[in-house]
Design brief:
This protein is 64% helix and 0% strand. The protein contains five helices and no strands.
Length: 83
């Protein structure tokens, strides 16, 4: 029987992105213009992350991740989230 693929959860991208950026919840919140508790709620699946916020986080990763190309950072983010 084929193995069922894990469903993509956009909320998991928040934590992974913060780790790639080496940012705190407060730092990401400041850049996104939200309260740090919103970041916490997204990371803990207490609140669904809006699609526009997912796109913003990906854009932030593309422009801020140091030591690797923007495309590599986003690929890494997607690999970790879908693993």
């Amino acid at each position: 029987m084929p193995r069922k693929q894990k469903e993509h959860n956009p909320n998991s991208e928040v934590y992974v992105a913060r780790q790639l950026l080496s940012w705190s919840q407060q730092e990401l919140a400041d850049v996104m213009g939200v309260h740090w508790t919103t970041i916490s709620r997204w990371e803990n699946n207490h609140k669904r992350i809006p699609p526009a916020s997912v796109r913003l986080i990906r854009m932030i990763c593309r422009t801020h991740v140091k030591g690797q190309s923007a495309q590599a950072a986003v690929r890494r983010l997607e690999q970790v989230v879908t693993a």
